[in-house]
Design brief:
Order of helices and strands: EHEHEHEHEHEEHHEHEEEE
Structural class: alpha+beta
Number of helices: 8
Shape: globular
Helix content: 25-40%
Strand content: 15-25%
Distance between the termini: 55 Å
């Protein structure tokens, strides 16, 4: 009836589909109707002050000199910070440990205390700690610098072409809401985003408001790369990737990462070869993927 609406995010509508598979109690496309994509939220790579690195390249060199000794935190398996951390691993050829927490509330105390060494974090969360000297920011994951921390370069500027990942939030309604009600909700959401008391205040916190029509929201959701059909049927391994395999890497947790020669997507496999989840948007423009390991 249009009176029950909610927000969904990158994690719940994309990564969760492939991390949890059939155990997920909902289908993002079948069970929901998108009202509009409301916001994009970039991440910032922050390190504990005990890490002497002042740039991305220095950090990669520092980790490489201590393989397996350093760690990065995330908000949980399949979260956007986890994806960004694995992007960094395979873009640079570093060896570090992933420590998943049950949300940011658990991750931040250990990061501030030095129990974990770094994290791809939401800008607004880490910025006060950077200003106070408790953390050091190195780069942001958005395609352009953040207005909140313009002194920090992007991952792309720091030497990793194509490294771009942002979380997104979408306003959704249950499937089956009449079209005229959906149009009313869409118009109201777009008006709110233009209101300084709503969109303006959140923009000041580093959130990029997007908005758009119902058609644009639906197209965005359905075109999300992580909704692509599995490339490898159950029981088949990376050799059945579809396109010729270009590079294969195995992480410390035993997952196998495979990218194809088209440089368009990466598939992650369980140790037994069954497809776990597709991570196409890790490198949406994956030119020279393996060349990054020359760092």
């Amino acid at each position: 009836d249009g009176y029950t609406i909610g927000t969904q995010s990158t994690t719940s509508f994309t990564y969760a589909v492939h991390v949890f598979g059939a155990k997920l109690p909902y289908n993002p496309v079948r069970d929901f109707t998108p009202v509009t994509r409301v916001a994009l939220v970039p991440l910032m790579l922050v390190v504990h002050p005990s890490i002497p690195s002042k740039s991305l390249r220095e950090l990669a060199d520092y980790i490489k000199a201590r393989p397996g000794k350093l760690s990065y935190a995330s908000f949980g398996l399949g979260s956007t910070p986890h994806v960004a951390g694995e992007m960094f691993r395979h873009a640079t050829g570093i060896d570090y440990q992933h420590v998943p927490y049950k949300g940011s509330g658990q991750a931040h105390p250990d990061l501030l205390g030095g129990q974990v060494h770094m994290m791809f974090d939401i800008i607004t969360t880490s910025l006060p700690h950077i200003r106070s000297g408790k953390l050091r920011g190195l780069a942001v994951t958005s395609p352009k610098r953040s207005s909140l921390a313009p002194e920090l370069p992007t991952m792309i500027e720091s030497g990793l072409p194509g490294f771009e990942t942002t979380g997104w939030y979408m306003l959704v309604a249950p499937a089956g809401v009449p079209r005229d009600i959906m149009q009313t909700l869409n118009a109201a959401a777009n008006r709110a985003m233009k209101d300084p008391d709503v969109g303006g205040k959140l923009a000041a916190q580093g959130v990029e408001w997007t908005g758009g029509t119902l058609e644009q929201a639906d197209q965005f959701l359905r075109s999300t790369p992580l909704f692509a059909d599995p490339i490898a049927p159950a029981g088949e391994g990376p050799e059945h990737f579809g396109n010729p395999v270009h590079c294969v890497a195995t992480s410390h947790d035993g997952l196998v990462y495979v990218c194809d020669r088209t440089h368009r997507r990466v598939q992650v496999f369980k140790p037994d070869g069954n497809a776990l989840y597709v991570v196409a948007q890790w490198f949406p423009r994956l030119a020279a993927y393996t060349d990054y390991t020359g760092w």
